[in-house]
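As promised in the previous annual report, we have extended the structural survey to additional targets. Below is the entry for ASCH domain-containing protein.
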Amino acid sequence: MVRIHFHESFYQDIRLGKKIQTARIDEPHYPLGEAMADFSDGSTLPIEVTGLSFKTINNMSVNEIRKDGFQSKEELWNALIGFYPHLKEEDPLMLVEFRCILN
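The corresponding structure token record, generated without further manual editing, is:
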């Protein structure tokens, strides 16, 4: 099963459906279908990967930014820089859309 790693601070937003997308760089292309969200504190949630696309941060819509759980490009950018310190605005982001599928 595909496992996608998240910081533990995203657990509740993913569980509640407030975060339904993650922006990644330099990671494998995740296949559509069932996966597991693994959190840095050891907790997990079952998810389904529902879409995959590629964009730079400057080409992301407000809707895409909100799917990621952020309200503005600046807020998302600041979070991304925390995970990817060498990220440049022109670098393509892999946008992974998903939904939580609790039993």
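DSSP finds three helices and five strands in the chain. The first strand starts at residue 2 and ends at 6. These points will be discussed at the next consortium meeting with the crystallography subgroup.
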